[in-house]
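Hey, can you fold this?
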Amino acid sequence: MSRVTARRRMRRITPDADIQRPDTLAVEEPLEIRIGGQSLTVTMRTPGDDIDLVHGFLLSEDIIGSAEDIVAARYCAGTDDQGRNTYNVLDVTLRTPVRAPARSFLTTGACGLCGKTALDEVRTRTRFPLPPGLPAVDTRALSAMPGMLRDRQSVFDATGGLHAAGLFTAEGRPLAVREDIGRHNAVDKVIGWALRESRVPAHDLVLIVSGRASFELVQKAVMAGIPMLGAVSAPSSLAVDLAIDARLCLVGFLRGETMNIYSYPERIRVEPGADSLLA
């Protein structure tokens, strides 16, 4: 955990004390992603699982469609003031070389795109459109997933400052959990894991995130063919619009035994005796 956390001095004031001591913080460092030596983008992330992050990011941006599209991903030489490699530059070699596009990624809430343009772009770019008739997930299995996600947040326990994303089977078995200072990076990391494990399109998996459900996170799920996204907090209006448009079941406020279903409620199966879950 040495590179994902750092110690910094701080002053803590409470009604009973005024003390100075070290605090454990989540590390935030830039990762520059290059394609064939040409800079593509820089993202601020928590170091770790960078290869998964790059695979997931490139899939989300429709630059690759499978793990086989990447021939190699290597860290470039980059040193700190003590001459140590920072591992903050990663160069990707593609099987079919492409020119790194100018940055026009759908990655922020302030990207300047109107809602219809954003929806149309995701619809036309995804290689794995969600088919109709996808299987339902039991309420009990779904409601247990955030707790299992939280139990696997080891760095959050130390710092209190990281987002998490996890991929689960429809029956509720956790497959991959990743943490990061950025919620979009955490999602890219689990999608990258799925891609490298030949689980994309992920039509049989559920994505759970520890925060809110933004348009960007729904977009990433759609690009990976994930049919269900559950968030412990609220979705945005455009996230719901995209979920409806793309046939993704979007669940918000997934806390304990309560949940709000914003799209395709028929994909949530209420078990006998659990009717109060959807009250």
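Oh, and this one too while you're at it.
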Amino acid sequence: MSQVTISIRPARTSDVRAMQDLMTPYVRRRIVLGKETVALYEMIQEFLVAESEGEVVGFGALHVMWEDLGEIRTLVVSPDAGGQGIGRRLVAALEARAVDLGLSRLFCLTFEVEFFARNGFAPIGEHVVAPDVYAQLVRSPDEGIAEFLDLAHVKPNTLGNTRMLKHL
């Protein structure tokens, strides 16, 4: 059996359709929150993709939340490409990007607690930012920030996910 080469690169607008196709089964199973096509295009610069033989086999996004804080969002790997370390490589590449941006902490909201724990994340409690930062973050219309802050209005959207944090 030959070794398949996986490359990690910044996403391009031409990847959006493949990303949406990969995401759809996870959205149907309520594992990830769906994103409208227009939102994927608007956020394309936040995404990295894993590519094998010209095909997108995984992707994930890094969203900056505050001067030292980012979120890994929408991490998806094709079920056909599972077990090859693609998710781990995407997380490592997103972490490297976070460090380049000056971030020192990464948040994720996930059902895949064991995966993220193996990658250095730990479940978090309620008070993970200073009160003055909280006062600024609570003003954001971004649902991911509301989920990070564990605000009551997003609890129905989190589907029972675990809030996790990693110090870089």
